[in-house]
Amino acid sequence: MSQKEKLKKTVEKKNKKNMIIKVVKPKGSTASRILAILIGSLVLTFAINFVITALSFKGDEVSLSEIVKDISDEHYDEIVIKDNIVTLDYNIQEDGEEELVRKYALIANDTDFYGVVSDSDIDIKNLENVYYKPRVDVTFGDVLTLVMVVGALYLGFVLIKNMQKSGGQIMDFGQSKAKLLMGKKTKSSFDDVAGIDEVKVELTEIVDFLEHPKKFEKAGARIPKGVLLVGAPGTGKTLLAKAIAGEAGVPFFHTSGSEFEEMLVGAGASRVRDLFKKARKTAPCIIFIDEIDAVAKKRGTVLHSGAGEQTLNQILVEMDGLEERTNVIILAATNRPDVLDPAILRPGRFDRTVMVPMPDFKGREEILVVHAQNKKFDENVDLGTLAKKTIGYSGADLENLLNESAITAALEDRVVINKEDLSEAYLKVKLGRKKKAQDRDEEDLRTTAYHEAGHAVVAKFTPFSDPVEQISIISRGRSGGVTVYLPEKDTKHLFKDQILAHLRSGVAGRAAEEIFVGRISTGASADIEQVSQLAREMVTQYGMSEKLGMIKYGDVEETKHLGYAYGGGREYSEEYAKIIDEEIKELVDNAYIEAKKILEEKKEYVEKLVELLLEKEVLSGQEFEKIFV
């Protein structure tokens, strides 16, 4: 009797007893049963293949990075790639007999083995004794194979539909986006990092930790889990991290704080887990998180979101987890250490904070030498002079400066960079591209000449001023002209009399316009901004006001402007605000009076300098000094 007839007979019996019954269809449709059978067959086939492969394979399991290193060092006799396993064989001599040594490593499903080998600077075409053995499937017949393919396609179709319904994020939202550089791929070493020798010495220990961990473990030392690199943008934090990986020859995971964030709640935490999981498998290795402040801001403030807190909490758990993370070191970089959560800075997470300073004169000269290696320079080029006048420039700024000088030479069909190219590049980066003089009015040019002559002459006759290196009345960007100063030495301290000299030469352009032109223009807007800022710093930060004393007034930290600390606003009363304004005005006014006095006494030099500027447009420091002979 069929199932349908049985069901009909049951219903008839129940109706005879006047009972109300509900007929329920058998669970699962025919399509779902077929799909279940197909998926089961597929899983069974893969399971049998896996068991056969596992039972027929012998050897020592190692990490994929060790296999790649052996291939790079040509330490092998034969390489066999089968399924998701790469095997490396070689013979060794022991007690006069040859013994076969076999190593093998598992290749992750999402890992391209040939891509990893190629990324490690290994020429795939020249590899010898490499054999590829295709997958050995258990034979169930062509029909079963066809059924499995159809089932897999059907399953894929269902998954795609589900992904579309949920925004397409089901499969990959939790995977880390960190870039993995294997072995020698970083191509960086400490020789490529110049100008920060003290930092390199400190970070050399990190290389020693990775290369000789046993040495420190025997001494009872705990290898630092994390090192935080703190410095201004462009000082070489990322380059330092790559150099450490290159020196140690270990895999290097490179990511940034912003890559952890996602619209989906929990995506950042999932990516953190995935990144640390990959790192443990690849150990020894380095994880480098650039701009970590994007994800590690102080919790419980307006600076941090709820989703961001989950990500930060996961980072804290991974760095301070119960599992030992031997030979996995976390490097992170930031230029905003003031916004980082205190929990991430404590020992046991980021054990060390390494300050990466702006380079001094010697450092800038070394950086210029490094970036000048692939360029040709004229004999009269002195990189030391360029290093002197680039105070405050980072390594990235200096590299860009040399690149602009090379572009200037190339535009004139030259391969050799001369002194004029460097000078043009310096002014181009600082002020912008120069404009044609013929497009400017003659009166405007003369006003600019008096303005720049005022700066230069007052600087010449003011003690503690920096010497003049160049004067130009060529318009660049928003500037009508420029006077370039060349500090005689690079010092860490700036004295009050030096700052007063900067104020005096800064206001001298406006003073010259008033005395020699008889009218004042808008050309001093940038000068006014600079001297106002300098005078305010003297009063509020450097304690150089007798009325206000050695007390800091005001907040310069961005977090406080955002209302994070002290509820926002200034930290001093209206009474002191008035005194601060009066002190700033007095400093600038006194500088202006002194500048006018010098210009009145040295009128002949100003007029002579103006005529030369109108004739040549640009004067060097040597040509300027000849006026006073």
Key terms for this structure?
629 residues; alpha/beta; Rossmann fold; Helicase, Ruva Protein, domain 3; six-stranded mixed β-sheet; 48% helix
Q: Topology of this structure?
A:
Layout: H1 3-16, H2 30-55, E1 60-61, H3 64-72, E2 78-82, E3 85-94, E4 97-106, H4 113-119, E5 130-133, H5 142-165, E6 179-181, H6 197-211, H7 213-218, E7 226-231, H8 237-248, E8 252-256, H9 267-282, E9 285-290, H10 306-319, E10 328-334, H11 342-345, E11 352-356, H12 361-371, E12 376-377, H13 383-388, H14 395-411, E13 416-417, H15 419-431, H16 442-460, E14 468-472, E15 482-485, H17 496-517, H18 525-540, H19 558-561, H20 574-601, H21 603-616, E16 618-620, H22 621-626
Parallel strand pairs: 1-4, 2-5, 7-10, 7-11, 8-9, 9-10, 12-13
Antiparallel strand pairs: 2-3, 3-4, 6-8, 14-15, 14-16
Helix pairs in contact: 2-5, 6-8, 9-10, 12-14, 14-15, 16-17, 16-21, 17-18, 17-20, 18-20
